[in-house]
Amino acid sequence: VQIRGRPTENQSGTSFDRSSPTWAALSRIAGLCNRAVFLADQANIPILKRDVAGDASEAALLKCIELCCGSVSGMREKYPKIAEIPFNSTNKYQLSIHKNTTPGESKHLLVMKGAPERILDRCSTIVIQGKEQPLDDEMKDAFQNAYVELGGLGERVLGFCQFHLPDDQFPQGFAFDTDEVNFPTENLCFIGLMAMIDPPRAAVPDAVGKCRCAGIKV
Question: Which is nearest to 96 in space by CA: 85, 107, 80?
Answer without folding.
Answer: 85
